[in-house]
Design brief:
The complex is a heterodimer of chains A (161) and B (581). Chain A is an alpha+beta fold and 161 residues long. Helix content of chain A is 48%, strand content 11%. Chain A is built from seven helices and four strands; from the N terminus they run H-H-H-H-E-H-H-E-E-E-H. Chain A has a four-stranded mixed β-sheet, covered by helices on one side. In chain A, a hairpin with a 2-residue loop joins strand 3 (138-140) and strand 4 (143-145). In chain A, helix 1 packs antiparallel against helix 2 (31-42) and helix 3 packs across helix 4 (61-70). The two termini of chain A are 28 Å apart. In chain B, helix 8 (275-295) packs across helix 10 (331-346). Chain B starts with a strand and ends in a 10-residue tail after the last helix. With 581 residues, chain B is an alpha/beta fold. Chain B has three domains: 3-99, Ubiquitin-like (UB roll) (Roll); 138-215, Alpha-Beta Plaits (2-Layer Sandwich), CATH 3.30.70; 218-571, Rossmann fold (3-Layer(aba) Sandwich). In chain B, strand 5 and strand 6 form a beta hairpin. Chain B is globular, with a radius of gyration of 25 Å. Chain B has a five-stranded mixed β-sheet with strand order 2-1-7-5-6, sandwiched between helices. Chain B has a four-stranded parallel β-sheet with strand order 13-12-15-18, sandwiched between helices. A four-stranded mixed β-sheet of chain B has the order 14-21-20-19. Chain B has helices at 21-27, 84-99, 115-122, 159-167, 202-206, 218-225, 257-267, 275-295, 308-317, 331-346, 364-369, 388-397, 419-422, 429-443, 481-492, 523-538, 549-559, 565-571, and strands at 3-8, 11-16, 38-40, 45-47, 56-59, 66-67, 78-80, 147-149, 174-176, 183-185, 212-214, 231-236, 271-274, 302-303, 354-360, 375-376, 379-380, 384-387, 461-468, 471-479, 500-504. Classes of the chains: A alpha+beta (161), B alpha/beta (581). At the A-B interface, helix 3 and helix 4 of A face strand 9 of B.
């Protein structure tokens, strides 16, 4: 029963993506725009979505996959329920952001860009979020934690478990 | 657009402003080393991504060095190509490439054929490498029957990508990821076997290093030759004899048919036969099929089907048009089945003891030989396919002094061939050979001038109209899969009407195949091979396939009528609609 629901949901998502593509006045050079929309709809860009885009835009799947893997904004894995973004901009970096992100990686046993097996967390590495005064900065689902120390990591994670 | 005045290394030049520094330098006989650059002018294959930074030169007034291959000239430009600064820049670029490249040249597949190795030697890079760091390593891809990918050796020149996307329009290979992680790969890192790759091997033909090579079958062929229980026969494609000599430093375009036959015999093959014989057989079947379709309102145009890269291309890209290609198997497949039936019967040899080895200019033939439907009585028609390059390697390994060999002939039967079969090796040749026969059959008259010169040439798509009886028969020829796509799309849209079309996957036809000696970007080599093909045709006593006495005998003794029931059963095949990934 659950599976049927998911399929229906996916069908609707593909329909929404198709409507977006069909409305475009141009198809040449529309790839990145379409991928943005697709990621907005699906949350990430799994193989089936990339193949679908390739077919709709009549271009090789390798080209689509090349663009998806080139830009760090596009993700081929689903994001976790909570997205932990660690700023690695210059100010945060010199104030120890590298150790912070490593601590998150250790706690969750995943690398930046990956999602935990239970789908709860994913880690993103960001460049400057514009809050250098608070460096090093961590954002979880948009909530900002400033002047984070390695020993704060546990406490931050506890808020979301 | 006009001419501009420039100065290169103190030489004054007045040249068109559309030129790059590299092109202008060539006018003045100044050599600038290149690596990623590729320009096969007539074949419209140009790679100038300027990714390798090997062609760096100094331009007065410019802060940094300029890549000569991608920098356009302008009025008053003053260029220096061999100043210490430009040479140093070049050397640094190569040293950086070497810092992420396995230094196993001695045992590398491309040893002595590698463009990176050559440029490093030319630049005097010796001893300890200057830069050391992390090396990129990837899983090797030997999933297909044709192409071996070892991306540890990739220098990201993108030549393969240009061939695959711009020239062949297959879009299998593309750059993935970024920075140090960048890799040229099929979508989603799929192994080649799971893609819509046609295995034309043009990526291999232009790869400067050993990142892309053929799946090598030399070991298996030696094993078969040395197996006393096996009866090993070899056949050679038309394009091999006009290119093999290059592997032994002979002038491109040298015809080495006789030496090749002698060498094959010395290697220990039980019988040395000729695919050209089977090319004549293909014409008998294909010309009959064409005549049949013409006279019985069959599907037109008829498309040639001897090129396995092209066959796989239309199966993936035009699965709705599977009824227009000829149902004829390719010549070496026809040969294989005839050896394991007619020949086996005639000489009382068990078909299962026969090993058929094809020497081909082609990588797709390796894949083709493994297609399950190209078999008879549960035996594959062809057991092993080796390329022109692999044959050369075997001859060298056996210590045969190729140049000094006395000319020898093929064995008979299955060794006799006509001029019509020879020209299979070049673009336009198959359709010309088919016309020589179809014309005589349809008109019932003798064709005096067999040279259909209007079908020859290097133009990507060519057309000609030939008067047969009262009918204007419209012919088209395309080489390179990008050109084939254009033609097929026009047919699908009803914009083009032809009676017969020849298509070859590789630019130039088989002489430019992915298994031929490396041309290193020199298109003149391909042209010399074409000239050799036509001169071999001219030198043949018989120049029409249906006049080949051994072919006539084959039909009399075994096959019955061309395009008849037995021929249909043994020599024709079907096509499979495939996915486009």
């Amino acid at each position: 029963m659950k599976k049927v629901c998911t399929n229906k949901l996916t069908d609707e998502k593909f329909k929404a993506l198709d409507e977006f593509i069909d409305k475009l006045s141009y198809k040449d050079g529309a790839l990145i725009t379409v991928l943005h929309k697709a990621q907005e709809i699906f949350g990430y860009l799994p193989v089936e979505v990339q193949l679908h885009v390739a077919q709709k835009l009549d271009m090789p799947a390798a080209k689509v996959n090349g663009v998806v893997t080139f830009y760090s904004y596009f993700s081929e894995t689903p994001k976790g329920e909570h997205v932990i973004s660690v700023c690695l901009g210059t100010a945060c970096f010199v104030r120890g952001a590298e150790n912070i992100i490593k601590e998150f990686e250790k706690r969750l046993s995943i690398k930046p860009g990956q999602t935990t097996a239970d789908g709860k967390f994913s880690i993103d590495a960001l460049r400057c979020v514009g809050a250098c005064g608070l460096a090093p900065v961590v954002m979880v689902d948009g909530k900002v934690y400033g002047r984070v120390k390695v020993e704060d990591v546990d406490a931050i994670l506890k808020n979301y478990i | 657009m006009g001419n501009v005045n420039i100065v290169i290394n103190d030489i004054k030049l007045n040249v068109p402003d559309t030129m790059t520094i590299l092109e202008a330098a060539k006018e003045a006989n100044i050599k600038i080393p290149t690596l990623c650059h590729l320009n096969l002018h007539d074949l419209k294959a140009v790679n100038k991504v300027a990714s390798c930074r090997v062609c760096m030169v100094e331009v007065e007034g410019r802060r940094n060095l300029a890549p000569a291959c991608a920098t356009q000239i302008y009025e008053g430009m003053v260029i220096h190509t061999n100043t210490p600064r430009s040479v140093r820049g070049r050397r640094t670029s190569v040293e950086l490439l070497l810092s992420d490249h396995p230094a196993d040249c001695l045992v590398c597949e491309k040893n002595r054929q590698c463009d990176l190795q050559k440029i490093a030697a030319d630049l005097g890079i010796r001893g300890e490498l200057k830069y050391k760091g992390e090396m990129s390593t990837y899983e090797k891809d030997s999933s297909s029957h044709s192409i071996y990918r070892n991306l540890d050796k990739c220098i990201l020149c993108r030549r393969c990508e240009t061939m695959c996307n711009e020239v062949q329009t297959c879009g299998i290979l593309s750059a993935m990821d970024r920075g140090f992680e960048t890799v040229v790969s099929p979508a989603f890192g799929l192994p080649m076997v799971d893609t819509a790759c046609t295995f034309c091997g043009q990526c291999v033909a232009v790869c400067p290093t050993a990142a892309l090579t053929e799946i090598n079958k030399v070991g298996e062929v030696w094993k078969a030759i040395n197996d006393k229980e096996k009866y090993v026969v070899v056949q050679t494609a038309p394009a091999v004899r006009v290119a093999l000599g290059e592997e032994f430093d002979m002038e491109p375009g040298t015809i080495v048919t006789g030496k090749m036959a002698a060498a094959l015999r010395k290697l220990g093959f039980d019988k040395v036969f000729d695919t050209d014989f089977a090319a004549d057989l293909t014409i008998m079947e294909e010309a009959s099929e064409f005549a049949h379709r013409l006279q019985h309102n069959g599907t037109l145009p008829i498309l040639t089907s001897c090129c396995p890269g092209w066959v796989k291309f239309f199966e993936h890209q035009f699965p709705d048009l599977l009824d227009i290609p000829s149902s004829c198997m390719s010549p070496h497949e026809m040969f294989g089945v005839i050896v394991k039936t007619y020949y086996a019967e005639k000489f009382n040899i068990k078909p299962e003891d026969i090993v058929v080895v094809s020497v081909m200019p082609c990588l797709a033939k390796k894949y083709e030989a493994a297609r399950p439907e190209l078999s008879h009585d549960e035996l594959q028609n062809v057991d092993y396919v080796i390329t022109t390059r692999e044959l050369a390697a075997m001859i060298k390994e056996a210590g045969i002094d190729f140049e000094k060999l006395q000319d020898d002939d093929f064995d008979h039967p299955l060794g006799e061939s006509t001029g019509a079969s020879v020209i299979f090796g070049t673009t336009g040749g198959v359709i010309e050979a088919a016309l020589r026969t179809a014309y005589e059959w349809l008109t019932g008259t003798t064709l005096e001038n067999v040279d259909f010169v209007q079908l020859r040439g290097f133009e990507g798509i060519r057309e000609a109209t030939v008067k047969v009886n009262d009918m204007d028969v419209k012919i088209a020829v395309a080489h390179g899969l990008g050109n084939a796509r254009k033609l097929l799309e026009a047919i699908r849209d009803g914009k083009a009407q032809y009676h017969a079309i020849e298509i070859m996957a590789c630019p130039g036809g088989c002489i430019g195949g992915g298994g031929q000696p490396y041309h290193h970007g020199n298109v003149e080599i391909l042209k010399k091979r074409v000239a050799a093909i036509y001169s071999e045709d001219k030198g043949k006593k018989i120049r029409k396939s249906h006049e080949n006495p051994e072919i006539i005998k084959l039909y009399e003794e075994f096959l019955g009528k061309p395009y008849g029931e037995k021929a249909h059963h043994l020599l024709h095949t079907h096509y499979i609609a495939r996915k486009k990934i």
